[in-house]
Amino acid sequence: MANLKLVDTSRPKGGETEKITINLGPIDLGQIDLLVEEGFYSNRTDLIRTAIRNQLAIHAQVVTETVTRRALVLGLQHFSKQDLEAAQASSERLDIHVLGLASIAADVPPELAAATIASVVVLGAFHASPAVKAALAGRIR
């Protein structure tokens, strides 16, 4: 089996990309290389990215229904220090539910995050300082 690292750079979300690793058998990998050599795709990553997007398009209705049912924010949701201070001032506790990228600003102290964030559910990527992630560890699903 060949390991192939894929970095999606064609549609960056919030300026960030995530790496994934997949294992492919030699026949699948050979077929991919053949299609690249024949000019159907510019490289292996282009073919894999296209295949993933095609599958996501096929299942778009299910994704849309699930996002609605689970009350997820679709895309990018960023929380600044000011956002969390405002939540704290109004005695509000946040439930962060995101399909995409959720991020907490680097200047947010762990104590502020712990005081204002009740739960974190992210399907995709969650970016926060190691200290904030540690402070929220029991609340991240």
Note the main attributes of this structure.
141 residues, alpha/beta, 2 domains, 3-stranded parallel sheet, 6 helices, elongated, disordered N terminus, Arc_rbn_hlx_hlx, RHH_8
Q: Care to describe what's here?
A:
It holds the Pfam family RHH_8. The protein is of the alpha/beta class and 141 residues long. It folds into 2 domains: 2-58, no CATH class; 63-139, no CATH class. Helix content is 42%, strand content 29%. The chain contains 6 helices and 5 strands. The chain has helices at 26-37, 44-58, 60-69, 81-89, 110-116, 130-135; strands at 2-7, 19-24, 73-79, 94-104, 117-127. The strands form 2 sheets. A 3-stranded parallel beta sheet has the order 3-4-5, covered by helices on one side. Helix 5 links the parallel strand 4 and strand 5. The radius of gyration is 19 Å and the shape is elongated. The two termini are 31 Å apart.
Task: Give a short overview.
The chain has helices at 26-37, 44-58, 60-69, 81-89, 110-116, 130-135, and strands at residues 2-7, 19-24, 73-79, 94-104, 117-127. It has 141 residues and is α/β, with parallel strands linked by helices. The model is unreliable at 1-14 (pLDDT under 50).
